[in-house]
Specification:
Keywords: Signal. Residues 36-274 form the Solute-binding protein family 3/N-terminal domain. By secondary structure, the chain is α/β, with parallel strands linked by helices. It has 2 domains: 3-120 and 233-271, D-Maltodextrin-Binding Protein, domain 2 (3-Layer(aba) Sandwich); 124-231, Periplasmic binding protein-like II (D-Maltodextrin-Binding Protein, domain 2). Helices cover 36% and strands 24% of the residues. It has 9 helices and 14 strands. It has helices at 3-24, 61-73, 84-92, 107-110, 165-173, 185-193, 204-211, 244-259, 262-271, and strands at 36-41, 51-52, 58-59, 76-81, 98-104, 113-115, 124-129, 138-140, 146-148, 157-161, 178-182, 199-203, 219-224, 235-240. A 5-stranded mixed beta sheet has the order 4-1-5-14-6, sandwiched between helices. A 5-stranded mixed beta sheet has the order 11-10-12-7-13, sandwiched between helices. A two-stranded antiparallel ribbon has the order 2-3. The longest helix is centred in the N-terminal third of the chain and has 22 residues, at 3-24. The radius of gyration is 19 Å and the shape is globular.
């Protein structure tokens, strides 16, 4: 058996075992050993980036590239399933070495954690019912940046996933808007489909995935949010502030899968046909 195949099989075994353990128990994973990397991922549906499917297996862009990174780093990866808003606290409390969850790279987050190089860049858009014709313009924010026109949200309820940069964007620039934050992106879309809210602000890829489903057939993109520092500069892996050794391992592995096309193939596998 080749060393590469042996490493791949061991990674699969450890990932599945750690996932089953993490879902069944709230006990923190053991402290980092020399050849073990503790990775936190969110199992809630957030395709095309990731989810745990009905068979209990990770799938999506981040599942694919995380598996590839573990092989390139030649380490055993223990993956713990956690809610999105629990990932960064767990990282800061030294319960994890790496957090994965389509985390946007922002100046605010950089104050408390470190980011790898970006592995994907996307925008943010506003989605609503096709039956409601809305023209969404832009406006100048007090900080000089361009934002979606605040008039868009007058008398409306806009949904967003909690603890995301989109949530921060709405909180920062629209203090008078009625914003409803959800624990998962899917729950925000469920309320939109049920008519309980008027809009959802979310990353583009997730929205396009939703619009391609039967549930999303009656909705469309109303506007793309202008580029903004609050919304970030791409998506990256997150490590503890000052953990230069882990960051270098992740960045080196990312550079490797970018160079040989593995990253592009993984993204294409989940993105082709979505937009």
């Amino acid at each position: 058996m080749s060393r590469k195949r042996e490493t791949s099989q061991m990674t699969n075994i450890v990932v599945k075992t750690a996932l089953a353990f993490a879902i069944a128990s709230s006990v923190a994973l053991p402290a980092l050993a020399e050849d073990v990397l503790r990775i936190g991922m969110t199992p809630e549906p957030y395709l095309p980036f990731g989810q745990v499917n009905a068979a209990g297996e990770w799938e999506g862009i981040e599942a694919d590239i995380t598996h590839a990174l573990c092989e390139r780093m030649q380490v055993k990866c223990e993956i713990s399933a956690m809610a999105f808003d629990g990932l960064l606290p767990a990282l800061k409390e030294n319960k994890l070495d790496v957090a994965v969850g389509a985390f946007s790279i922002t100046d605010e987050r950089k104050q408390t954690v470190d980011f790898s190089a970006s592995y994907y860049t996307e925008g943010t858009s506003l989605v609503g019912p096709k039956s409601e014709a809305v023209t969404v313009g832009t406006a100048d924010a007090p900080d000089g940046s361009k934002i979606l026109d605040p008039k868009t949200f007058e008398g409306k309820i806009v949904g967003v996933q909690a603890s995301t940069v989109q949530h921060q964007y709405l909180t920062k620039y629209y203090p008078d808007a009625e914003v409803k934050a959800y624990d998962t992106a899917d729950n925000s879309m469920a309320d939109l489909a049920a008519g309980r809210i008027d809009f959802v602000l979310s990353p583009d890829l997730y929205l396009h995935t939703f619009l391609a489903t039967p549930q999303g057939a009656d909705f469309d993109i109303k506007a793309a949010a202008p580029d903004n520092k609050v919304l970030g500069e791409g998506v990256g892996y997150v490590v503890k502030k000052g953990d230069a050794a882990t960051l270098k391992k992740v960045d080196d592995a990312l550079a490797s899968i970018k160079a040989d096309g593995t990253l592009d193939k993984s993204i294409a596998r989940w993105v082709d046909g979505v937009k």
